[in-house]
Amino acid sequence: MAVTSRGLEGIVAAETKLSDVRGQEGKLIYCGYDIDELAGQVCYEEVVHLLWHGRLPNARELDFLKAELRHERELPHGLVDFLRACPKDAHPMDVLRTCVSMLGLYDSGELGEDALDVNRRRALSITSKIGVIAAYFHRARQGQPLPPIRHDLDEAAHFLYLMTGETPGPEAVRTLDMAYVLHADHSFNASTFTARVSISTLTDMYSAVSAAIGSLKGPLHGGANEGVIRMLKEIGSLERVDSYIAEQLAMKRKIMGIGHRVYKVLDPRAPHLKRMAVKLTQELGEPKWIQMSERIAEIMLREKNLHANVDFYSATVYYSLGIPLDYFTPIFAIARTAGWTAHVLEQLADNRLFRPSSDYVGLPAGKKVVPLPER
Ligand SMILES: CC(C)(COP(=O)(O)OP(=O)(O)OC[C@H]1O[C@@H](n2cnc3c(N)ncnc32)[C@H](O)[C@@H]1OP(=O)(O)O)[C@@H](O)C(=O)NCCC(=O)NCCS
Question: pTM above 0.90?
Answer without folding.
Answer: yes
